[in-house]
Amino acid sequence: MQKQVCTLVSTTILKDDTNSKNQVRLCGVPYTALPIATLVSIDTNLPMLIRRKEQKTYGTKKLIDGEYSCGDDVIVIEDVITSGASILETVVDLERSNLNVSNVIVLVDRQQGGMQRLSERGLKINSLFNITEIVTILKEEGKLSDAVYQSVLDYVINNQIQPAKGCEKPLRTKLEFKERAELLETSKIAQKIFKISLEKKSNLCVAVDVDTADKLLDIAEKVAPHICILKTHIDAISGVTDATINDLQLLAKQYNFLIMEDRKMADIGNTVKLQYKKLVNWADLVTVHSVSGGMMLKGIQEVINENTDSLDSRGVFIVAELSCNGNLISEQYIKETVKIAEEYKDIVAGLVCQSPDVISSPSLLQLTPGVNIKNANDNLGQQYQSPSDIILTKGADIAVVGRGIYQDDNPAEAAKLYKESLWNTYLERISNS
């Protein structure tokens, strides 16, 4: 019987032409679907990945085991679906490993709302059987009485999975920037980002990670017409003076973009407060780690409040996930980071992350680095993705491009190309909602 079932799954996969375009892997939802996925892997000759429920505390500490590359398609296999929660958990972990879930195949749909929940999440999902078909066949074969048959159908109807609180609201990625900017809980700095993006039709942030002040200003001037945010590492650039900062601010005013200092502050509240006083007068945004907790943001908040008369708006992006291999950020760390962001929504513009499910609130922006049209990775663990991966799969609102632009022979043309590609992909995302 198990072999027959696995053959049905294999046939479903092989007859789907969409699965032949990219490199495909299989992943069974742990743990009951693993034997099924294993047999299907052997039958179809498609490689298999294993998703662990618990992260290893040793070695690479990976949740996803197996050989794969960034952007590979994964077909998720499950035995039974009720709410779809276990499938969603697997999908999220796969996406956080830079994989694309192209399809979900379920043996039995209990018809209690799980299929609809996954479809609303944007997943393509197929079931081989549903509970009504099964009990109907059993009844016709004399294996079930009329009373038992009807009790099963009544149970399904009376025990539908209710959507989680707030699920009736539009998903963040489905809303237009204009709608999100008008939300009451959206911070002033987030509203400003939305406004600039809409005016310039750009959700491009360029990271100018050069080594001299002259190079910084040169690249900044070339990309300025095409960006909403310019990201700097001022402390890594030689020759920076007050004149450099002044010229950068003049460019920002002239070409209507924000400056973000990617300082990733992560100290105790008082120390961060002292550090931020050196940045607040020229950097519209600063990046921080949440490792030291909310008191760090309180320190930043106090500095901003002290300067409200002289500054239009200031804020932070909190790093919730990293795009490099081997980073030590855990699932629990991400959840706690989101809590801190929601607690300080008045100054938090959004989160730096790689997954569409990290941010649920439409008032927070998702900033995602690691975009490069030409390269998939570098030799130091950086994983790159395409504009489509970043906006559609990863859920980014603002995408960060660095070397793909500032190392190009023509940074201005490269910035224009990325700007148009990213913005058109954003328009595609909201039009498909």
From TrEMBL:
This is Orotidine 5'-phosphate decarboxylase. Keywords: Decarboxylase, Lyase, Pyrimidine biosynthesis. Its EC number is 4.1.1.23. GO terms for molecular function: orotate phosphoribosyltransferase activity; orotidine-5'-phosphate decarboxylase activity. Substrate binds at D209, K231, S323, Q382, G402, R403. Pathway: Pyrimidine metabolism; UMP biosynthesis via de novo pathway; UMP from orotate: step 2/2. It is an enzyme of class 4 (lyase). Gene3D superfamilies: 3.40.50.2020, Aldolase class I (3.20.20.70). One of its GO terms (biological process) is 'de novo' UMP biosynthetic process. The active site is at D262, K264, D267. It catalyses: orotidine 5'-phosphate + H(+) = UMP + CO2. Residues 203-418 form the Orotidine 5'-phosphate decarboxylase domain. Belongs to the OMP decarboxylase family. It comes from Acyrthosiphon pisum (Pea aphid).
